[in-house]
Every structure is written in structure tokens, then in C-alpha cells.
Amino acid sequence: MAAVVVVGAGGLGGPIALAVAAAGRPVIVVDDDVVELSNLHRQVHFTMADLGRPKAEVLAARAGAGARAVVARFPALPADLGPVAAIVDGSDDPPTKFAVAAWARARGVPAVIAAALRYGGNVFAGGPDDACYACLFEEPPAEAPSCGEAGVLGPVVGWVGGVAAAAVLARLDDRAPAGATIWVLDDLRRGGAARTLAIAPRAGCECREAA
């Protein structure tokens, strides 16, 4: 069975990888960071015993049989990961999110791209023929705060990561809505359901020129 690539083994990547693996899909975890004490409040798949260890290796081990780790520096992604069914981004780096979208488009696989900051986040999902991440956001921002700089409420990454895991599994099981979609999760403190928006292709986007 082709694997689901999870880019980022932190607060978002953890719940995504564990949920996808629990659904019976092989997982490849891509990250080059190590576990630090400041991670633990939002990255509950790690413990004090993991400090200093590569995040990808620890998360892949927690995901169980069939999961493997690839240590790679963002935003570059390995060219050959074997058979891939979909890729999910849970990184904390905007250029990496665009690199993941381009990697997925070049290989003809679905992409799910998750982001979380402070009290909320969003999840983009699209197939290879749908509008892409760049159709929506066009290009990485010149400056964007990371979770470490701006902060993120610990449960938010579980919330957003759960939506991302559900989105990729729906794509793989042919249960996803037609076209590209973004779920906007505004503020966990206020509760409520995510807002769901359909994304139309953007004229002039590279994904349209390559189609």
C-alpha cells in the first residue's frame, strides 16, 4: 500500500501521523529537528525521555509498524520516497508548505496542508487536478511568526491536526468533496464548527499553466 507522507513531526504532524497510521495507512514522517523541552506542552506524542532525539524517528516509532522516518531539512523534500498516496504538511514554515504543494502537484497526488497559530488554524486539501495551495495564497509571506514566536494553545494543534488527518483519509477513501477546500478553524476558545470554503483555480497560477 502506498504511504502517506507527513511533513513535520511537531504539534500538527504528531496527531496527523498517529491518526493516519491508526487508520491502517503506512506513514513516512519527514523532519530534521530534535525534541526540545519547549515542545512538550503542544507536542504530546513526545516525553521527557525523548529530549534530544530526532522527532521523525520518535514519531515514526510511535506510529507503529509500517511507519518510517526520513530526516530531511525544510523546505527541500526528498525526490524519491517510494510509492506515495498523499502528502500532508504540518510544518511551521510557509516556504515548506508551498514546496509540499509543488511536490504533490509534480507527482500527481493529493495534498493536505495544515497551519496553526495562537488559538486557531486552517487546513487546505486538494487533489492533483484541483486548485492548489498557491491558487489561494499565491506565495509565501515575507515575514510570518512561528508557533515558537507567536505561541499556540496546546489543544489547538490537536484540533487542527485532527481535521487534517480526516481530510487526507477522506481523499484516500474517495469521500472528499469535489475540488479544493479550506477549513478555517477560527478560535478554539469560542468553540463552534470550522468554516468550509471551496477554492477555485486562480488564473495565472503555475498549476493552471502546467495542466
Characterize the structure shown.
- The chain is of the alpha/beta class and 211 residues long.
- The protein has a single domain (3-209), classed as 3-Layer(aba) Sandwich (Rossmann fold), CATH 3.40.50.
- Helix content is 31%, strand content 21%.
- The chain has 7 helices and 8 strands.
- The chain has an 8-stranded mixed β-sheet, with helices on both faces.
- Helix 1 (13-22) packs parallel to helix 2.
List keywords for this structure.
211 residues, 7 helices, Rossmann fold, alpha/beta, single chain
User: Major β-sheet, in short?
Assistant: 8 strands, mixed
Tell me the number of structural domains. Answer: 1
Query: Class, according to the CATH hierarchy?
Result: Alpha Beta
Strand content: 15-25%
User: Counting H and I runs of at least 4 residues, what is the number of helices?
Assistant: 7
Low-confidence stretches: none
Summed over residues and divided by their number, the pLDDT gives a mean of 91
| Helix/strand structural class | alpha/beta
Q: Which second-level CATH architecture applies?
A: 3-Layer(aba) Sandwich
CATH superfamily: NAD(P)-binding Rossmann-like Domain
Helix content estimate: 25-40%
Query: What's the Cα radius of gyration?
Result: 16 Å
The CATH topology annotation reads as Rossmann fold
Compact overview of the structure:
This protein is of the alpha/beta class and 211 residues long.
Topology of helices and strands:
Blueprint: E1 3-7, H1 13-22, E2 27-31, H2 55-63, E3 68-71, E4 84-89, H3 94-107, E5 111-117, E6 120-126, H4 133-137, H5 147-150, H6 154-172, E7 180-185, E8 195-199, H7 206-209
Parallel strand pairs: 1-2, 1-4, 2-3, 4-5
Antiparallel strand pairs: 5-6, 6-7, 7-8
Helix pairs in contact: 1-2, 1-6
